[in-house]
Amino acid sequence: MILHLRLSLAASAVALAAVISPSPAHCQTVAHVALSGGLVTTALPHVSIASTGRGSPIVLIPGLSSPREVWAATVPTLARDHRVVTVQINGFGGDAPGENLKPGLLDGVVADLHAYLQANRLAHAAVIGHSLGGLVALMLARAHPEDAGRLLIVDALPFVGEIFVPNATVAMLAPQAAAMRDGMATQYGKPDNPAADAAIAQGLALTPAARAQVAGWVARADPRVSAQALYEDLSTDLRPDLAGIATPITLIYPWSPLNPKERAEPLYRAAYAKAPHITVVAVADSGHFVMLDQPAAFSAAVDAFLR
User: Fold this and answer.
1) For the residues 85-107, what does the mean pLDDT come to?
2) What element of type H or E holds 47?
3) Which end of the chain is more exposed for a tag (fewer CB within 10 A), N or C?
């Protein structure tokens, strides 16, 4: 994540220059839509949730600006033996923003996911979260430990601000976070900038095919939702809470010549040092989107995590 996210956020800045917990009634807003192939989608204020397969539950949460298609290669295999629940934040993947145009987006995502798991009696799920989705997974385990039996965090930190300044605080980065939010949100309603999308993707993936996918996802995301989600990501620091998260955590981090292992591993291990149950897995020759750059290595890591 270290250099990959720095490059992505820097590209976002260049592109911009160029161009609460719910009440009980919250659960009553659920809408179920049956789709082909046994897939059922549930619409909630902050997320939509698709479910397929039977067996012990696995929850998949994508990252910033990413749709559930991030897990397209993962779901079919997992659904053979598991009930696979894929989350998509409203406003990503071309969806309407729902309730995600105001503060409390991440808390709302956690509340919606908890409500869904409770309503469907899916306790102790294996939760897999990428990037922003990894932060959401940690937040879920902190707030509702009965929901998460184990976590697989894919290239996420308990406080993403550490990629900018070691030992940074939320207050230290608040002006920068607000400026990034406000600048990104101004892109709403303007024509898409494919060059800017490609520049962002180049900082997040290594292979051409992966970069093309990521650029497409960035183009489809509502920039107002991406802006608010990014701001809340930069404003959330779970480092003080790690010691209290008893849920076992497996962390996948990528490294490459752009982000050498000798630089990356100390940061990740230090960031999660207070987690009582942590396993660290490195994936070589990969950018931030590990599941796209190194699908075989990612699949093997998921298999090991589930075993």
Assistant:
1) 98
2) strand 47-52
3) C
